[in-house]
Design a protein that fits this description.
Blueprint: H1 14-17, H2 19-27, H3 39-52, E1 61-62, H4 64-71, H5 75-88, E2 91-94, E3 97-100, H6 105-129, H7 132-150, H8 157-174, H9 178-198, H10 202-220, H11 224-250
Antiparallel strand pairs: 1-3, 2-3
Length: 276
């Protein structure tokens, strides 16, 4: 049985439903409406969402002129948006054109390893400062999501995405470091493409949910080392699931009938968080 999504369907249709737009607002904390954002932000959002939703597949070539026409902006804001996406590792220059990057398994492992170092530190801080009221709210949200996993028609995929992001946000904010929060926001922006694809699998959601329960339990015990270890295990396991799910994705035929570049692997090398 598939994971339920708004409007019906299963998690196998997540990309077609367009969760990239929802995830963009959550990860980038966008508050302004579409009419209030800058032209560069509009172009950046257009590209980010299309890449995350796989509307623009890995290795696809892009032209700034086409991007400007679709975003209804001039070339200058497109160049600004493209420079940002190149810096983040989602696009790369290929002569006069642009290409959507293919992240190799080593790249994915590196990103999750970096994220684990930061979030394990944040989890230690959170164990000391998060209130019992907040942690009780987290436990209740996870319990509601658990019911949804076993009865998919009762919840949409966005319920789990919201619970997932909220827990990580609260842990990061508890560290009280704007620099750490900014670094993690950028990492999550790059990893967003894998997050949406990962929700194709109900088994992935169940496993991630169980790991979140372990994190919250350690936080409620005020076990700083245990919270860091649980966070490290969660991110290490997430990395493994991401790589397995990507292998499934790239083996699917593309619209042209070809198969995407299957240079993917499994396994991960992410700090456990127990010995920082």
């Amino acid at each position: 049985m598939g994971w339920a999504i708004p409007g019906g369907g299963s998690a196998d249709a997540a990309a077609e439903v367009g969760y990239g737009a929802w995830l963009y607002d959550a990860v980038h904390r966008r508050r302004a409406g579409p009419g209030q954002e800058s032209q560069a932000e509009r172009a950046y959002r257009l590209l980010w969402v299309k890449i995350v939703d796989r509307e623009i597949p890995p290795l696809a070539r892009l032209r700034e002129l086409d991007i400007a026409a679709e975003a209804q902006v001039s070339r200058s804001p497109v160049r600004e948006a493209v420079a940002r996406l190149v810096a983040e590792g989602l696009l790369q220059r290929d002569g006069r054109s642009l290409r959507v990057c293919v992240l190799e398994p080593e790249d994915v492992r590196d990103l999750y390893a970096y994220r684990a170092v930061l979030e394990c530190h944040a989890a230690r801080c959170a164990a000391r400062v998060l209130s019992e009221e907040v942690l009780a709210e987290e436990a209740a949200a996870l319990a509601a999501c658990a019911a949804a996993v076993h009865a998919p028609s009762q919840r949409s995929i966005t319920d789990w995405m919201r619970a997932d992001l909220l827990l990580h946000d609260r842990v990061v904010q508890a560290a009280g470091s704007p620099r750490l929060a900014a670094a993690l926001a950028q990492l999550r922006g790059i990893l967003g493409i894998f997050q949406v694809n990962g929700f194709r699998s109900a088994d992935n959601v169940r496993a991630s949910l169980e790991e979140h329960v372990e994190i919250v339990a350690a936080l409620r015990r005020r076990d700083a080392d245990g919270a860091a270890a649980a966070m490290g295990q969660h991110l290490r396991s997430t990395c493994e699931r991401v790589l397995r799910q990507e292998l499934v994705y790239v083996r699917r035929p593309t619209a042209s009938g070809r198969r995407a570049d299957p240079r993917r692997g499994t396994g991960a090398s992410v700090p456990s968080g127990s010995g920082e």
